[in-house]
Design brief:
By secondary structure, the protein is α/β, with parallel strands linked by helices. The chain is built from ten helices and seven strands. It has a seven-stranded parallel β-sheet with strand order 3-2-1-4-5-6-7, with helices on both faces.
Length: 275
């Protein structure tokens, strides 16, 4: 009998931590755009006893995500799908393609193969909580427009999204809207889907971002003024993900869990001022 399948898209620190937490006794299908990162992650996980299948995939390509979903279904019942793929330091178009369209494609394609009782999760970001809330019509469009048509929306035009910071923020707001919309269609299969918004977690991606000009100061300010006063760990994100993916969260779907150590709380209280 085939073992249950856990799909992890994005072989970085958070993706690997969730894979370790969810993968015991299951087959892990690990996907990433980078073949070298994928190979290293697979080797590390197999070295500690996990059964891992690896597949290179570009999350912004429907063809690639469709093939990934079919490959997962061939391995066995797909019980967990986690999209941890994302970019920060990139042009706006690339950020929207990976963080926003990629999430929409994963929800659409894996919505056809997720097993009854299964659960999905997109790793979003506290950045999605920083701008003012989306109005209802914009949230509807970002949440329900088919993935292949998303980038034609006026709210995602070059004029509306002029730089990488704006692209990152709206892509993460859209993640929340996509999870809420997908909860309805996934629910038709008896499955759930949510988003999780980490704060400052020391991953290679964040280290790279903190090394960029001017960013270190803003990161340190956010950490110092947060309620917890420290950086989070990938294991803490994996613990939260395990809850959302597991039976204890059986009544939770279409929602976002903010796990940021209180950075957004400091922002709302006026203790933190970000550009």
């Amino acid at each position: 009998m085939p073992s249950d399948v856990v799909v992890i898209i994005g072989a970085g620190g958070i993706g690997q931590a969730i894979a370790r937490r969810q993968g015991a006794g299951r087959t892990i299908l690990l996907a990433d755009h980078s073949e070298s990162a994928l190979a290293a992650a697979r080797e590390a996980m197999e070295a500690v006893g996990h059964a891992v299948s690896a597949r290179q995939a570009d999350v912004s390509s429907r063809e690639a995500v469709h093939a990934l979903a079919r490959a997962a279904a061939e391995l066995g019942p797909v019980v967990n799908v986690v999209n941890a793929a994302g970019v920060i330091q990139a042009p706006p178009a690339a950020i929207l393609a990976v963080n926003l369209v990629g999430t929409a494609l994963v929800f659409e394609e894996f919505g056809d193969v997720i097993a009854p009782g299964g659960a999905g999760l997109v790793i979003s970001s506290m950045a999605g909580h920083m701008p003012p809330p989306l109005d209802l019509e914009t949230a509807r469009l970002l949440g329900q427009t088919p993935a292949d048509e998303l980038l034609a929306l006026p709210v995602l035009s070059e004029q509306a999204v002029p730089d990488s910071g704006a692209a990152f923020a709206i892509s993460k707001q859209a993640n929340h809207a996509r999870a809420q919309a997908a909860a309805v269609t996934w629910g038709d299969r008896g499955a759930r889907v949510n988003s999780l918004s980490p704060g400052i977690i020391l991953t290679p991606l964040v280290r790279e971002e903190m090394a960029s000009p001017g960013a270190a100061e803003h990161y340190q300010q956010a950490i110092a003024t947060s309620a917890v006063g420290r950086i989070g760990t990938v294991d803490e994100i994996a613990t939260a993900a395990a809850f959302l993916l597991g039976p204890d969260a059986g009544f939770i779907t279409g929602t976002d869990l903010l796990i940021d150590g209180g950075v957004i709380a400091a922002l709302r209280a006026g203790r933190l001022n970000l550009p």
